[in-house]
User: Fold these one by one.
Assistant:
Number 1:
Amino acid sequence: MKEGQTLWTKEQSILAINLYCKIPFGQMHSRNADVIELANLIGRSSGAVARKLGNFASFDPKLKQRGVRGLENASKLDSQIWNEYMHDWDEQFIESEKLLAKKKHTTIEKLNYIDLDNLSEVDGKEKERLVIVRVNQSLFRKMVLTNFNNQCCITGIKQSELLVASHILPWSKDKGNRLNPKNGLALNTLHDKAFDSGLITITEDLRIKVSSSFLKSKDILSIKHNFIDYDGKQLIEPQKFFPDVDFLKTHNERFRA
């Protein structure tokens, strides 16, 4: 460590990995407004925050496979925090979001623009549960869409109003991976519905597989263009968090071949 430098605290590092999950890989630099904002919040330079994001990137095995290398000299604390996230996304990310809200002197629901007006008549634990559900949904959407550069990973559609952060393992079936970005695909609303219904799936090598049931309607142009033409094509790759192979295998079991 250079003279005058101070070690990163665990709190600072947790806030850094929170940001790492939210911004595209190509925007993790010192000029990014979000990087500058976090730097001011924790009393670090924007360059130091950008380097910390690069340290976290060095742990990502999928980035390494693609020949993308993060920065060297990641600390033991960085490794510890990364591993904690990888094994307990839901708990760790919510805790980091609560920490961020505290640092900004606000609440987790205000931080994520959660509208509470229609919950005014809900009391106690039920209200708390609904708030957490909405926060989870907001955070998952932000992470997944950012991971796919804010476009549908099948069609490339970029209109945000038409995009859905789709769970590979359903929200109701796997409570431990509701916030895991490796459990998410950015899809337009049509393909999200088809994916959820098992009419399309994604293979382990990230290729799109379309149900043969569409062939019965192959003369309908919308069926041909929206489904049949995509069969066998490569998914638009995420920037950081690749879909978990085991999650894809589970979804493939629901596929209506």
Number 2:
Amino acid sequence: MRLAAKVAIVTGAGSGFGRGIAEAFAEEGAKLIVADIDEKRAAAVASAIGSGAIPIAADVSRKADVDAMIRAAVNAHGGLDIIVNNAGTTHKNQSLMTVSEDEFDRIYAVNVKSIYLTTLAAVPELEKRGGGSIINTASTAGVRPRPGLTWYNGSKGAVITLTKSMAAELAPRNIRVNAINPVIGETALLEEFMGVPDTAENRAKFIAGIPLGRMSKPTDIANAAVFLADPASSFITGVAIEVDGGRCI
């Protein structure tokens, strides 16, 4: 198994991409902290995975929650090798002029500040294991931004830039940092991204811009995350892999 004896934290793991990543990591032998702001969803995913998966409720925009999440990995599994900063949020697709200040602040707290907080807490633990892998879920929105999601787009552009800068700075510590850029996917945030009801007709409008002809699925993102966490990718750092069916071509 590709992640045998590895300890991983996946945030936003109660559904969508995060759940897919957690399940894929478990299948490859990793021990897990399944973190989500929704305690019940985290518990359900951990229960479905079974032995070696510990659920924890965590708001990744809060330092106390992030510190507790890292401690949980160390206390339950003896250390930390991989952290996937997957938790994210957005505003509904709309004019940049109508997004509220509270929405803006929450987007940057969850999508950007969380990476700052997890880095401060996780890096010392990764160093104790001789290095590790940090994986950030960014977005094609940070590469090819489109109207209607301007402030969200900016947060994901920040994630991509942070990923590259972190990779350069943490390389001497043998900590690799990479990102995944999913295209719009079949997750709970789908209607927020579209800004219209989730109907076959509306989906078709978004799929028309994806050359491979479908939206992303949690398994697509999970497969990329497994690769970036696998020691086989030990010479890869600072990349943002577009898992987008050709959307960014």
